[in-house]
Amino acid sequence: MKYFQPYSVEEAIEIAHASESTFLAGGTDLVLHMRTGKAQPSGLIDLGKIPVLREIKEVDGFIEIGSMATFAELGNSELVAQNAYALWQACQSMGSPQIRNQATLGGNLGNCSPAADGLPPLLALGAEVHLISQEGEEFVPLSTLLSRTPLFGQDTLIRGFRIPINSWQSGFAKLGKRRALAIARLSVAVAVEINGTRVENVRVALGAVGRRAFLSESLGRELSGLDLNGAWLEKGILEVQQIVREALGARASAPYKRVAVSGVFREALASIITEGGTQA
Amino acid sequence: MIEIKLVVNDKPYTLEVEPSERLIDALRNRLGLLGTKEGCGEGECGACTVIMDGKTVNSCLVLAAQANGSVITSIEGVGNRRSPHPVQKAFVEVGAVQCGFCTPGMVLSAKNLLDKNSKPSNEEIGIAMSGNLCRCTGYDKILRAVKIAAEEGKE
Ligand SMILES: Cc1cc2nc3c(=O)[nH]c(=O)nc-3n(C[C@H](O)[C@H](O)[C@H](O)COP(=O)(O)OP(=O)(O)OC[C@H]3O[C@@H](n4cnc5c(N)ncnc54)[C@H](O)[C@@H]3O)c2cc1C
Ligand code: FES
Ligand code: FES
Fold first, then answer.
1. Mean pLDDT value across residues A200-227
2. Using CA atoms in the order A235, A93, A161, A26, what is the torsion angle rounded to 10 degrees?
3. N or C: which end of chain A has fewer CB within 10 A?
4. How do residues A67-116 score in pLDDT, each as one tens digit?
5. What CATH number belongs to B2-77?
6. Is A28 close to B61, i.e. CB distance below 8 A?
């Protein structure tokens, strides 16, 4: 197996184009997959020596996050805490301190497990993914990207993410650890735009309900343009249960998750509205 | 084989490693640093914890090649029988060591916390130690030892 350690993005995508090699970020998924044989790369392109990929910064009304930013770095970022609270929350509860020090947001998308903690917050926050290859670069809404299979070609690098900075508020909650049975895992991220007492716009994303994290457009529609109160919260809970029912169908985990999701949904909103349905 | 340069416990090394070789293998097999333990080999237990560029990582999940250019502290770099680190002293005093398998990783997580934050709250200690599992002690003594080491450091 070959091992490359490029010092720039250009070099990295050139090697990927020429060599069929696989990008290596923190390695918390890939190193394990190599040991079990699930991944058998012919070469590795270690992204760890490209400083620009680690940056977390504000640019033209967006938070730009390099793909190699770790969960620990994101969880310590004031910029993220202020403007992307759901993502910040997900970073606190992900893995263990050692895993957070090593695991990157880009790797979370690259691995794309159904329960990847970074994805529901990014979906709810309206994040776009910055992809780059020798053919060119593009910004794709994460929700669009997640409907593609495969997500992108072997020679495409996740350069980073960008999240619009706006007055939306967001929150995240999850149930179950990575090693818990799939049936006991669930995560919810919510972002809302509140104007006075009205919820103008809503985005709700679910993780570990189906093959990949997803944004529920119908839920967003149903919950937008309403007054924020106890009734709104109750409506949200009924709707989110309906989404889980539809997404899981007859799967064994369906009855459990349909019940569990109401608590997780409530918890995701805890930083935004109180138990009684007033603004927190 | 690829050549990497790294500093381990203040000593510079140049090593030839396999691309798929993990940092724990390089430390144990090439440098003979057997204090770093392999428990689960899957990132769950923290027995293999080392400090890499000021951060704790599980050396069973890091490739040796990824550590190229890094500064590593393993348990051998923390203290010794004659002059133990305050964390090590506290672990012994409190009886936080039973079989000892988890201890090197525990000590490194605790040391790294205290290096960054000399007055951690109980909650901060709990979080910092949450990636290290112990089958023997039930954690109370371990958390108490870290608290004591923190208090001694303050004086
Ligand atoms: C003990 C343990 C606990 C964990 N707990 C959690 C948890 O609570 N929540 C959670 O979500 N995950 C968890 N994980 C899974 C894992 O840590 C995450 O998925 C992590 O974000 C992966 O990032 P990485 O940098 O380690 O990726 P890597 O392992 O380096 O890469 C993962 C995949 O993404 C591809 N890739 C990486 N970067 C790029 C890029 N820039 N462009 C294109 N492709 C790329 C790689 O080729 C590979 O296929 C856990 C893992 C372990 C071992
Ligand atoms: S041996 Fe590395 S975490 Fe268990
Ligand atoms: S003392 Fe035995 S595992 Fe902790």
1. 95
2. -150
3. C
4. 999 999 999 999 999 999 999 999 999 999 999 999 999 999 999 999 99
5. 3.10.20.30
6. yes
State the pLDDT at residue B154.
61
**Burial environment of residue A168 by CB neighbours within 10 A (0 to 12, 13 to 18, 19 or more):** buried
Write the residue with the smallest CA distance to atom 14 of ligand 1.
A95
The tokens for A278 are 């007033």
- State pLDDT tens for residues A258-269: 999 999 999 999
Contact B63 A27 (CB under 8 A): yes
Task: Mention the CATH class of domain B86-154.
Answer: mainly alpha
- Report yes or no: B43 at the A interface, CB cutoff 8 Å: yes
* Global confidence as pTM: 0.97
Which tokens is A164 given? 């619009």
Q: Which two tokens stand for residue A213?
A: 């994290």
* Mean per-residue pLDDT over chain B, rounded: 96
Interface A–B counts its CB contacts (< 8 A) at 68
pLDDT for B155 beyond 70: no
pLDDT of residue A280: 75
Domains of chain A (ranges plus CATH)? 169-268 (3.30.390.50)
